[in-house]
């Protein structure tokens, strides 16, 4: 674990983001999406911060992640929506975890697991309305709905939710948005006719929570927006603020002459006598190697650029003639208040999305927490997934 590096997470900011999203969807529940270790922020602290901000549900990709929440004593409804063969369905039923169903075989396995458990499984049927990823196709929907309704009548399963997921909600006006909304309404109508009475119908990710009130239904599922990023970069008036600041103390400072090749491959060559600062973070910590010569870094009160190849554990920044000392912080990204880059800035130069930048911050980087939820003794367990979750 690098003693110099830190991913500082302001949990009050996550709570405030969730509260702002809740205002966007009045009348709907908010599910805090905390998969992938809370998008890198720490699953338990992120979950508690989301709940403090008004979320009443939590969402994960895998049952194992949901079990981490339960083991920590979190009792609100939790939905896990990727169920590979071998997923611990009996444990999910015992822990009252809602299961997202994308295939008929999951209904059958849940029925068996529920018989063994002696209690019904809680199920959200997921309609594939056009993403063509997870979800039940329109062709298979009637058969799965009938099977679920039969299992419900037998007391082995309770359909607590019906849901779907957008393909292009981050491109307002994209024709697939209206098509998916229409297909979701058809799926709901069919389920209603079959007698299903779910507690929640849900479709909206962050982008739809922010821009599509007609997609809010009974519950919205914002992930990235809770952590402070708009999935539609530049969307005005979101009131969102990034919660994570990634920084490291400079480890080495040295003067080098003009013409010095820097880092592996000498992909950066100094054009004058200059000072180089070594930042002890690398691709082993989630700093993409593609940030070589382009990643923005805030050092010594100014925004600069990664100089040369990003290595596994370190990279170098040319700071010119500025006085920089070992131990001084290099800030890779934060909320941007003091001129430091944001994770969105990193995403922009790397041709990716803010999601990937924050989620990929490695487990070697200690998470530290600020805010009211940080006072909780368990709030610092940012590495909870190491306990054995499958994400
Ligand atoms: C089913 C589902 N709902 C909600 C989300 C949250 O999406 P976002 O982070 O874009 O809000 C995801 C993320 O991939 C998802 O898979």
Explain the overall architecture.
There is one protein chain. It is built from eleven helices and 19 strands. It folds into two domains: about 10-225, Alanine racemase (TIM Barrel, Alpha-Beta Barrel); about 245-375, Lyase, Ornithine Decarboxylase, Chain A, domain 1. α1 (about 10-25) crosses α3 and α6 (about 105-115) runs parallel beside α7 (about 140-155). It has an eight-stranded parallel beta barrel, surrounded by six helices. It has a six-stranded mixed beta sheet with strand order 16-15-18-10-1-19. Strands 11-14-17 form a three-stranded antiparallel beta sheet, with no helix packed on it. Helices cover about 30% and strands about 20% of the residues. The chain is of the alpha/beta class and about 400 residues long.
SSE arrangement:
Elements: E1 5-10, H1 11-24, E2 29-33, H2 35-39, H3 43-52, E3 57-60, H4 63-71, E4 78-80, H5 89-94, E5 98-101, H6 104-117, E6 121-126, H7 141-153, E7 157-163, H8 175-193, E8 200-204, H9 206-211, E9 219-220, E10 244-249, E11 252-256, E12 261-262, E13 268-269, E14 274-279, E15 296-299, E16 302-305, E17 315-320, E18 329-333, H10 343-350, H11 354-359, E19 367-370
The chain binds pyridoxal-5'-phosphate.
Pyridoxal-5'-phosphate binds at residues 33, 81, 165, 205-206, 221-225, 231.
